[in-house]
């Protein structure tokens, strides 16, 4: 379910006009040669979240936004768009073989990486059940 969830999530993020218009890439893993800004699903991990009658997984994902900005709020528009898109991920993913029970923000980490380079990692937890 983890790989299917990753694929659904990337497609959902890429289908957003605000994100696709504001980012040069929305990809799995950090791109080697892509101009900033870009968003990558850099890590995921899953654990059992089954019930007595259904298979389930708790999947944690880390989304990394890399961008340029001299001010701390430089990427705030993109960050808000990413958060809004994550919160609106449809629960019915039966075509991919699962149903989303919940998607929850876990934590964020921001850092400056040299001259005007910034990175923000957003971590989410999704609980999904097989259909």
Molecular structure report:
- This protein is α+β, with helices and mostly antiparallel strands and 131 residues long.
- The chain has one domain (2-130): STM4215-like.
- 24% of the residues lie in helices and 44% in strands.
- A six-stranded mixed sheet has the order 1-2-3-6-5-4.
- A hairpin with a 4-residue loop joins strand 5 and strand 6 (117-130).
- The N and C termini lie close together (11 Å).
Helix/strand structural class? alpha+beta
Main sheet summary: 6 strands, mixed
Number of helices: 3
How large is the radius of gyration? 15 Å
- 3D shape: elongated
Assess the beta-strand content as a share of residues: 35-45%
Task: Note the gap between the termini.
Answer: 11 Å
CATH-derived topology: STM4215-like
Reading side by side through the largest sheet, how are the strands ordered? 1-2-3-6-5-4
- What is the overall pLDDT average? 94
Helix fraction?
10-25%
What is the number of strand segments? 6
CATH architecture verdict: 2-Layer Sandwich
Note poorly predicted spans.
none
Helix-strand pattern = HHEEEHEEE
Number of domains: 1
CATH class: Alpha Beta
Spell out the key features of this protein.
single chain; 131 residues; alpha+beta; STM4215-like; six-stranded mixed beta sheet; 24% helix; 44% strand; elongated
Short description:
The chain is α+β, with helices and mostly antiparallel strands and 131 residues long. The protein contains 3 helices and 6 strands; from the N terminus they run ααβββαβββ.
SSE arrangement:
Blueprint: H1 2-14, H2 17-22, E1 26-28, E2 38-48, E3 56-68, H3 76-87, E4 92-93, E5 98-112, E6 117-130
Parallel strand pairs: 1-2
Antiparallel strand pairs: 2-3, 3-6, 4-5, 5-6
